[in-house]
Each structure stands twice: as structure tokens, then as C-alpha cells.
Amino acid sequence: MLGIDQEVFHLNTNKIMKKSSSHIILFVVVTLLTGCGDIVETNYSTKSKAQDDNLFQRGWLPSFIPESSRSLIVKNDLDSNSSSGEFYFSTKELKSFLKYLKEMDADLSFNKAFLKAYEKQGYSPYRYVNSDSSWIFLIDKKNGHSVYYMKCNQ
């Protein structure tokens, strides 16, 4: 299991949550549970811009995300050493991206209702774990979009 706290759910989910009232309710509940922390939000137009800012070297996102990654939104919670965000990528790079990830069963997840809501919108859950951190990537394979959550391993 990934021990990812509710605090990780600070992300831009407007596109997903507008699609049904149950998603709006879920978003409100998650927002109320997260509280306020020391969160730094950064936007990058391309993966190259994120590399220039040492995002990958600092461990907030793995460097293997697709080269075509764009419109990156990164929200780092400095209090909990966690991160969340999203990015878009060319579907031509999907296969090479997925080779680094392991498919997850939403029934075994840290937040079943949350993952099920994304699955209903066409997202598939994946995870990646290294010695320092654990990530969950929710990937829309058809549209080349990923929402992610990261928590440092302790």
C-alpha cells in the first residue's frame, strides 16, 4: 500500500469534477479534509522548463515522464514532503511511459472512491516506487493526460 495522506489531494481537478455531481461532492470533501499547509505551486509549459528548474533532480517528479510532457502543474507540500499535480503528453509516448509503471487495482488503493471516480472518466491507476518516494499516476491513455500524487517513503 502507498501511505499517501489526504493532504496530497491538492490538484487542479476542475475538468474531472465538473462531469458529475458526485465528483463535485468528492472534491469538496477532499478539500475540506486537506487543511492548509506550506504548499508551493509551480507551472511549467514543458518538461524542458521543469528540467531547467531542477524539478526532477529535487525528486518531486520522476525524470522518465514523457519528453512531450507539457502544461505541468506541480504542487509540493513542504510540510508533508508530498506532491501532486498533472501534465499532458503525446499518446505516441504512452508505451514508453508505462514501462516504468506498475498497474494498480483500484480496489487495493489508499482511497477507493477517489480512484473509482477517475476510472469512470477513463483514467487508469499506476504506481511507481523508488527508494525515496512512492507515486500514483492516474493516466488517461486516450487523451494523454496524467494526474499524479507522490509521498516520500519513511
Textual characterization of the structure:
- By secondary structure, this protein is an alpha+beta fold.
- Helix content is 25%, strand content 31%.
- It contains five helices and seven strands.
- A seven-stranded antiparallel beta sheet has the order 1-2-3-7-6-5-4.
- The longest helix is centred in the N-terminal third of the chain and has 14 residues, at 21-34.
- The protein is globular and about 30 Å long.
- The model is unreliable at 1-20 (pLDDT under 50).
How is the topology of this model organized?
Layout: H1 14-17, H2 21-34, E1 39-46, H3 47-52, E2 70-77, E3 82-88, H4 94-98, E4 102-103, H5 112-120, E5 123-129, E6 133-140, E7 145-152
Antiparallel strand pairs: 1-2, 2-3, 3-7, 4-5, 5-6, 6-7
Taken as a percent bin, the fraction of beta residues is 25-35%
Radius of gyration: 14 Å
Low-pLDDT segments: 1-20
Per DSSP E runs of 2 or more residues, the count of β-strands stands at: 7
**Major sheet size, sense and barrel closure:** 7 strands, antiparallel
Order of strands, main sheet, comes to: 1-2-3-7-6-5-4
Mean pLDDT: 81
Order of helices and strands: HHEHEEHEHEEE
Helix content: 10-25%
Give me the number of helical elements: 5
Overall body shape: globular
Give the class from helix and strand content and strand pairing.
alpha+beta
Distance between the termini: 13 Å
